[in-house]
Amino acid sequence: MARRYGGNPAGTVILLIADIAALILILWIALFLLDANTSNSVVDWIHDAANWLSGWSRGLFTIESDNWHAVVDYGLPAVVYLLIGHAVAGRVNRS
Fold this sequence. Notes:
This protein is an all-alpha fold. The protein contains 3 helices and no strands.
């Protein structure tokens, strides 16, 4: 793990932000699929954060299944944040 987050401090910050954003989105997908209690304050916070992070991608595709709709709406931005975050961090670490 030290090697992954090693190198340029700016690259490390970029990696951490991308990983935390993706983690929040993936956590919300898991909580949704497990039918978590949305009146719980922790679940509500994760849902609000995931909604904010995925605002640009929600409703991008028309999918009838609620489960698949959640996976696509929140999974797509998780993948995008990981790809872009790691690409930018790699570029920062090389310079």
